[in-house]
Amino acid sequence: MKVLNRVLSLLLLLALAAAALLTAGLASGVVTVSRVRQAWPYAPIEAIAHDLSKLGPDRTPPVVVVALVIAVITLALAVRELMPPPRRARTLLLPKGGQGMTEVAFGSLDELAEHSAESLPGIERVRARVNMAHRALRVRCKALVSPYADLATTGPALEQRVKEQLEHLTGVPVREVRVRATVQDERASRKVR
Amino acid sequence: MVLELALPTTNTVVLARAAVDATLGVAGVAGISRGRYAIARTFGATGAVIEGVQITEVDAGLHVEVHIVVALVPIPPLAAAVRAAVVGAFYRLGAAVTSVDVWVDALYLTEGQEGGR
Q: Would B58 be classed as within a structural domain?
């Protein structure tokens, strides 16, 4: 879904950039109406191209400028969309307290979040990913919940437990704990506590 | 013929061993880690290797890197205690420390088990 969204937004941005460049070309006279007709023989497009080519000397400069600005912005956004998403740092650097740094591996914080969540009744399995953003921690959890657990209470309890444990250990505030819960199949094997 | 090897004036292996002992003596430290992403080691002139501690000589003294496994205790005060223990151990051996970096590579996820070796 994430990939599909990225492809769709990329196509939309490229279409917008092409339209903006074409508008600028038609308004400035670089592109002619006959060429547009050759490329895309479609009456509404021809009408728009005709209108743009006949703007007049007072309206041409602002239209060209605005179209070029839109083209630049959309192309920049398209390039940004093509860039790979930033990777998580390997370690969390804790606020300095003395001579030297204190670093905690994010992988171990993931394990802590999973361990503390799985200790709750009704939680069968958890996959967590801890991240740092704006001087606070953000946690994303995928939890497999027992079919006999009350989701209304289990979800908030999980969030609270993960938040408390991470804050207690690192001293860094946790801004968000996002939980995506899936209810386990009733016939699946469950943890014995 | 006697071949004389030039040994460093400060034996880094002795210092690394002292750092390991001092670190393991801090309550909340469950063990020494080799390093999560790269192995931290101190090599001695005689072939001895101490894992989990890396000592680098800098202008004003020594920079120490300690990799640890910790119990479920607050990390900032624990790191401060490790730092103080290492600095104290080095001081007793006559070595000056400029900084001690504490790397928490793993957490010991069984509650109630902390400290010592």
A: yes
Query: Radius of gyration over alpha carbons of chain A, in Å?
Result: 27
Q: Does B100 touch chain A (CB under 8 A)?
A: yes
**A63: its two tokens:** 């239209």
Domain residue ranges in chain A: 2-82, 91-183
Flag whether residue A96 sits within 8 Å of chain B, measured between CB atoms: no
Kindly report the nearest CA distance between residue A132 and chain B, in angstroms: 16
Distance of CA B111 to the CA centre of its chain: 24
Interface test with A, best of B34, B67, B75 (most A CBs within 10 A): B75
Contact between A24 and A53 under an 8 Å Cβ cutoff? The reply is: no
Q: Is residue B114 part of a domain?
A: no
Distance of CA B38 to the CA centre of its chain: 15
pLDDT digits (tens, 9 = 90+) for A165-181: 999 999 999 999 999 98
Whether B117 maps to a domain, the answer reads no
| Joined tokens for residue A39 | 């490329």
Which of B76, B102, B107 is the closest to A171 by Cβ?
B76
Whether this model's pTM surpasses 0.80: no
* A170 interaction partners in chain B (CB closer than 8 Å): 75-76
B75 vs A62, A94, B47, CA distance in Å? 60, 9, 34
3-state secondary structure (DSSP) of residue A59: coil
Tokens 């592109």, residue located:
A31
CATH 3.30.70.1350 fits A91-183, yes or no: yes
The ipTM (two decimal places) reads: 0.80
- Asked if residue B25 is part of any domain, the answer here is yes
The string of pLDDT tens digits covering residues B50-83 is 899 999 988 888 999 999 999 999 999 999 999 9
